[in-house]
Every structure is written in structure tokens, then in C-alpha cells.
Design brief:
4 strands; 163 residues; alpha+beta; single chain; 7 helices
């Protein structure tokens, strides 16, 4: 029971409390330290983590592939030849991986009904930083701080504008 609770948050004190070891955070902390020092408990934690990674297909290759999709993605892959956003079902996996969120805003006024689609992309600079860190380059190169990334506004029937 302790192992199952421990791998949820990797907090030994909370895991010990939830598993019924100790009645206060202080006593649970003592139990957690003792439990995690046992070889069989440590082996069970390692096995549970390994099983989770296998179940989720959480491998270094998969993680780096997603970082590369964001780092090297081209926003033009999200648009058709007229600069309008492609329907989601037409985006390939690489293009879809660049998108953090899509908001469709419908405005109704007495004169007209219009729709604005706002597409927020994942932070390309942050993805490049992670890729550089993995490759061991750029640590002291003075990389710029991350920012929230651009928003692209696509009013219905007009050319896209970047804000």
C-alpha cells in the first residue's frame, strides 16, 4: 500500500500517512525513511515506476521526439494556402504537437456574427532550451528567458495577424 501511494507524488510522509503508518506527519516521516531504506520496498518502488513508464510508453525517445516537434515546428503547417487555419482533422501529428490550445470565440452583434480562432503554440524557445540541455550545449551561452509564445488571431474571412 505504501508503494502505491509513494509513486503518486514521491512524498514519503504523505504515502506513509495514507498507508496507515503513523498518526502525525512527524511519525509518518520516520516510517517513510525506514520503509524507503528497506531493499524490498525500494525494489518494489523501482518496479512500479518501471511498469508505469512501460504502460505509458514514457521513453527518452518519445519525450525527445515531442520536444523536437515543438522546437523545429513550422507554423505554416497549421495554415492552408490562403493563410486560414486548417481544420484539426487535417493537421498531421507534427503540426498538432506544436499547438498548446485553440480557442474559438463567437461574437454576436446586431450587425453581424463573426468568429475568431485563437491558436496558442507551445513555447519554442523553451523546447530549444530543453533540446540544448539534452545535447549539452548552450548552458552558458546566455539563452534568452522563456516567454509565453505568440498568439495568432484568425478573424473569419481575413488574413491572419500576429499579436
Amino acid at each position: 500500500m505504501f508503494v502505491r501511494h509513494y509513486i503518486c507524488r514521491f512524498n514519503g510522509t504523505q504515502a506513509a500517512l495514507q498507508a496507515g503508518f503513523g498518526s502525525t506527519p512527524r511519525s509518518a516521516s520516520v516510517y517513510a525513511v525506514r520503509l524507503l531504506a528497506k531493499a524490498n520496498i525500494r525494489a518494489a518502488v523501482d518496479a512500479a515506476i518501471e511498469a508505469r513508464m512501460k504502460r505509458l510508453e514514457l521513453t527518452a525517445d518519445n519525450v525527445l521526439r515531442e520536444i523536437a516537434r515543438v522546437a523545429f515546428g513550422d507554423v505554416r503547417r497549421l495554415l492552408d494556402e490562403y493563410g486560414e487555419p486548417l481544420p484539426l482533422c487535417e493537421l498531421d501529428d507534427d503540426a498538432a504537437a506544436m499547438v498548446a490550445s485553440i480557442d474559438v470565440i463567437r461574437r454576436r452583434s446586431p450587425k453581424a456574427h463573426d468568429q475568431v480562432t485563437r491558436v496558442k503554440l507551445w513555447d519554442k524557445v523553451r523546447a530549444l532550451e530543453l533540446a540544448c540541455r539534452h545535447l549539452g550545449i548552450g548552458r552558458d551561452a546566455g539563452l534568452p528567458p522563456p516567454y509565453a509564445g505568440p498568439y495568432f488571431i484568425f478573424p473569419e474571412g481575413s488574413r491572419p495577424a500576429v499579436i
